[in-house]
Design a protein that fits this description.
The chain is α/β, with parallel strands linked by helices and about 280 residues long. It is built from 10 helices and 12 strands. Helix 8 links the parallel strand 7 and strand 8.
Length: about 280
């Protein structure tokens, strides 16, 4: 699979710029089209709401909303032009942001989103948006850390592997990036002996699969230590100089609701490099 279309979430926050820049670099690298989708938490000014507000308040609110959107669009267009991306598109869908994000993400090869910033006022909105897209869009998503923007992404890749469905899907979704990477290291984390045995049996199959795609990966396995899985992955990424982590995005069903798994939660909370997740 080739990367032909990328979508980046654009809003009014400070993290929007690094997301757009990273998405533009990826689109330029793979010759893909880039779609900027403007989604913010503020609800629309419906006629019923407007009727309850003073006319000057309605006018100011519409002006502020329009100016913010124009600034975001200008930032997106500047990044697309700087990356010499011939095929790019700006979208500002109406309606419920979560539904719109999933709907637009379902029709692209890769989505670029931001890591929820715990100190930001809209942290809850960003978390819900990330979860909705990861669990509902059926598209791989790259999450960009809020703390820092990577100068380069996807040239040195750490793949988190547990031989499960989500991990396998993440590997397949990331193939275009893995095929062009300078280094690919597969890290397996086994908590129980039976897990280690399953991974040991699956490793030759994964190695053969990657070689068929021209990827000569290194393999590392950790068994039964006390370090939490997400922390281990982040530690290994730092040791290896990785600038992208590829992993399955896990969730558990509880009371008709999907709850993120432990390693996935750790990544959302503590990621230090961009993370590509597939569910």
């Amino acid at each position: 699979m080739a990367l032909k279309s990328l979508m980046v979430h654009v809003d009014d926050g400070a993290g929007s710029g690094p997301r757009i820049e990273l998405a533009a670099r990826l689109a330029s690298r793979f010759g893909a089209g880039l779609i900027g989708v403007y989604l913010v938490p503020a609800g629309e000014l419906t006629p019923s709401v407007a009727a309850l507000l003073p006319a000057d308040a309605v006018k100011r609110r519409l002006a502020d909303t329009g100016e913010a959107q124009h600034r975001a669009e200008a930032l997106f267009r500047q990044a697309a032009a700087a990356g010499r991306i011939a095929n790019f598109e700006w979208r500002a869908p109406s309606g419920f942001a979560m539904d719109a994000a999933v709907a637009h993400a379902r029709c692209v090869d890769l989505v670029v989103l931001g890591q929820p910033d715990p100190d930001h006022a809209e942290r809850g909105y960003a978390q819900r948006l990330a979860e909705h897209v990861l669990l509902g869009a059926a598209s791989p998503a790259v999450f960009v850390p809020y703390a820092d923007a990577a100068v380069e992404v996807g040239t040195r890749v750490l793949v988190a592997w547990d031989a499960g469905r989500e991990a396998a899907r993440a590997v397949r979704d990331a193939l275009p990036i893995l095929e062009s990477a300078e280094q690919v290291v597969v890290v397996s984390l086994a908590r129980e002996p039976v897990d280690g045995e399953a991974m040991a049996l699956a490793q030759p199959r994964l190695a053969a699969y990657l070689r068929a795609h021209g990827i000569d990966a290194q393999f590392k396995r950790f068994e039964g230590d006390s370090i939490e899985g997400g922390e281990r992955l982040l530690s290994q990424a730092a040791d290896l100089g990785s600038n992208l982590i590829v992993m399955g995005g896990y969730a558990h069903s509880r009371s008709r609701e999907l709850i993120l798994g432990g390693v996935t939660r750790t990544m959302f909370a503590s990621m230090t490099v961009p993370v590509l997740m597939s569910h």
